[in-house]
Amino acid sequence: MLNDIKITNPGEQIGVEEEFMPGNGVYIENGKIYSSKLGILIIDSKNKKINVESKTKLAIPEVGDIVEGIIVGPIREDSTIVEIVRILGKKNLKGTFTGILHISQITRGRLSTILNAIGLGDWILAKVMTSWPPYQLSILDNNLGIIYSTCPKCGKELVLKKGRLYCDKDKIFIKKKVSSQYLLKED
Known about the structure:
This protein is mostly beta strands. It is built from no helices and 16 strands. 0% of the residues lie in helices and 41% in strands. A 5-stranded mixed barrel has the order 8-9-10-12-11. Strands 1-6-7-3 form a 4-stranded mixed beta sheet, with no helix packed on it. The chain is elongated. The protein starts with 6 loop residues before the first strand and ends in a 13-residue tail after the last strand.
């Protein structure tokens, strides 16, 4: 019967551990069962099991995916918000997805503030670390990090020069966590 179909969203609570055994497409946090993906809620009353099943393969972030995103802020000392705009190697996204980039997931070295590595409006490549929104992201690997940035003083595009980002107009280097796949490189 069509009225009995329940569509779930990633991160939506669908049950509790005392009532159901977790099945596919779900995760447990603090005794509560949540959907880990967009799909149809399947409750097996006989076996007391709860599942979420995808009928179609939707492009949503999954653990291990490499995503392209924009730092949209607010930028705090230890974290910032990222709007995920694309998943590499997958179809276009089905909706808007948000990620969080924590200072501990930027560099293996020590950072006193996240602003020493990223800035508002920067485009990044990041790895998805969790299966529920807001998705925890990491740019620790060399191929991950900023792929496009502009000068915080004048707004001009920054060019990768001698391994660092450079503003031709202001004649300054800007320290950021740059991906090996940065788009604008000096010839």
